[in-house]
Amino acid sequence: MSGGCGDDGRRMDEAPPDNAIVRETHMPAAEDAPDVQPVAPARQRKIIHIDMDAFYASVEQRDDPSLRGRPVAVGGSRERGVVAAASYEARVYGVRSAMPSVTARRRCPDLIFVKPRFEVYKAISAEIRAIFAEHTPIIEPLSLDEAYLDVTENLHDIPSATQIAEMIRQRIREVTGLTASAGVSYNKFLAKLASDYRKPDGIFVVTPAMGPGFVEDLPIGRFHGVGPATAAKMQRFGIHTGRDLHDKSLPFLQEHFGKTGPYYYSISRGIDERPVRANRIRKSVGAENTFGADLFAFDEMREALQPILDKVWRYCETSTIRGRTVTLKVKFADFQQITRARSAVQPVASRDDLERIALSLLGAAMPFDKGVRLLGVALSSLIREGMSDETPTQFSLPL
């Protein structure tokens, strides 16, 4: 079920532009990087990562037979917005989630745009999570269509995580008519990589013996937790593959990558001690974009904020998360930065409300006496729908 961001979260499937960052403050910086230490795990976990295949688009094709076998984009429109999900038929043309609709239409003239039905996706996601819960209570949802499961100790005492993953995939197909891919390994990092390895409708296992070698051969851009900007920086240091990253010392990585250095050091060795965290919620979610030319007019900035707002709200919809505090970030041509925030008693209820508050903050801060090179919007004071309080964390999404 894929992250954060739309349903194929690869973050995850495509490489977002270097100048775009979304603040989970996933991800691409490494979800819990500061907590990861470069030491061998105390015990060998059995982790499954389940990722639904083109979830939103597959639901639409399931429910509307006329869409089957055709290129479908969920979200956006012919003129504006961004693609929330793309069917596999659309991906053949290079259409990906988070892509501007205009670009998607250019790549695939026959692309069919379908309005999202988040209530339907949420209902199906609940069915899928109920299937997970038949095997383990230790479930960490990343979005409506993606989750980690710790099955080291499971409810049926099945010793094989691979067998459990197959049982779950089969049950998902029986209950929902949809397909899921699974990755099985001894940690979260490798399980997530593995779930992408044989998509769609596949399963891949990375054993402890395979782990270090599997990582060494991967391009650095495939590493979960390494976004495009970080990958470009690594490449400037001659780091192009997992093997190159492995060859760098811990002091070097700490010097050049700060608190995420230990995370990169560990994953290059196939080590990731992050536990699967049930009922986890983020501390904030946001997006920002740096522009090729400075912006000066309010109308220019309002237009530039649209894909940023789309991205933030899509994450809220896919993760059933809402927030009470909206923060606007503005960085000027001279790199001076300001933020403006507004909190409400109730969580922001819709994308229109999010836009209204963000534009109100922007209008109140203007006029500016210099050009704007970056805009960002973040939501914080987050809760999950139906819950009053959860332990927070922070993370990043690709725009």
Automatic annotation (TrEMBL):
InterPro entries, A to Z: DNA/RNA_pol_sf, DNA_pol_Y-fam_lit_finger_sf, DNA_pol_Y-fam_little_finger, DNA_polymerase-Y, DNApol_IV, IMS_HHH_1, Rev_trsase/Diguanyl_cyclase, UmuC
Protein name: DNA polymerase IV
Cofactor requirements of the protein: Mg(2+)
Residues the record lists as binding Mg(2+): 51, 145
SUPFAM superfamilies recorded: DNA/RNA polymerases, Lesion bypass DNA polymerase (Y-family), little finger domain
Entry keyword set: Cytoplasm, DNA damage, DNA repair, DNA replication, DNA-binding, DNA-directed DNA polymerase, Magnesium, Metal-binding, Mutator protein, Nucleotidyltransferase, Transferase
Reaction equations catalysed: DNA(n) + a 2'-deoxyribonucleoside 5'-triphosphate = DNA(n+1) + diphosphate
Organism field: Aurantimonas manganoxydans (strain ATCC BAA-1229 / DSM 21871 / SI85-9A1)
